[in-house]
Protein 1
Amino acid sequence: MPVDVNSAAFRLWQILNGTSFHGCIRNLYINNELQDFTKTQMKPGVVPGCEPCRKLYCLHGICQPNATPGPTCHCEAGWGGLHCDQPADGPCHGHKCVHGQCMPLDALSYSCQCQDGYSGALCNQAGTPAEPCRGLQCLHGHCQASATKGAHCVCDPGFSGELCEQGQGPPS
């Protein structure tokens, strides 16, 4: 088989379909001539013959014939097992939430519930906490948040200190 025809046809397939071919081709004739793939320079992922994946059925995935230990299944999202026939541990298996907890939405998708101080779809963007006074316990006063000082205590009359913990004596 002429290498030019094979590579040109392959490039045309990718341009028209935006994907590559997954499967088995046997008894391919071009211009009434049986093509012999064993006499061409094989590209990665191209294996002569159709045998490697014949005995391996992938229910929710595709077979990769040229894996090191032999043919293996590459499963679609949400599926696992040797034959892609087992539901995965749920959508949170291998989640990408950086600073948050994975919350399943359905069998295949999830969202991230971010920890305080983080935002974004994957909780990977640091920011100001939603409740800046949450961790500040003012003993004799109340917490106030400002852009310049951040969270700080405003003490009741007669008290001072970082947490309004120091009582002042009676006025003289």
Protein 2
Amino acid sequence: MSINGKTYGALNLYSRATDALGDAERQRAEFFAVQASAALSVARRQAEHTQLTEQLRDALATRAGIDQALGILMAQQDCTHDQAFAILRSASQHQNRNFGTWPPGSSLRSPGRRPARRASTTPPDPPATGPARTLNALTREHR
């Protein structure tokens, strides 16, 4: 049995009698194998669509948090979107974890240089909680 030219299985027929399977039985077996291949193809496509749907849902669920983290980093580090994303990506790679799976308040540590920061006359931000606290821990290491 094959799907798109790739073999995924075989249909084996056995009989205790010699020459028990004639042309009619072979034709029925071939027809059954074609139908089984078609059913397998539909099942594989459905499984792939289900997996893609789950991946897209996960991406949508984590996007808001990542966008918030980027905004906080951009404000704290006075950096561009791309620079903030590089900081998050670096932290994710060095922690060997997907940013979207980090619980709020967990520590983000990433080696590397921080973007250039302009002198500021504004007072420091008050202590943060939740995602902002997580980003504060990350940005302290980039200062």
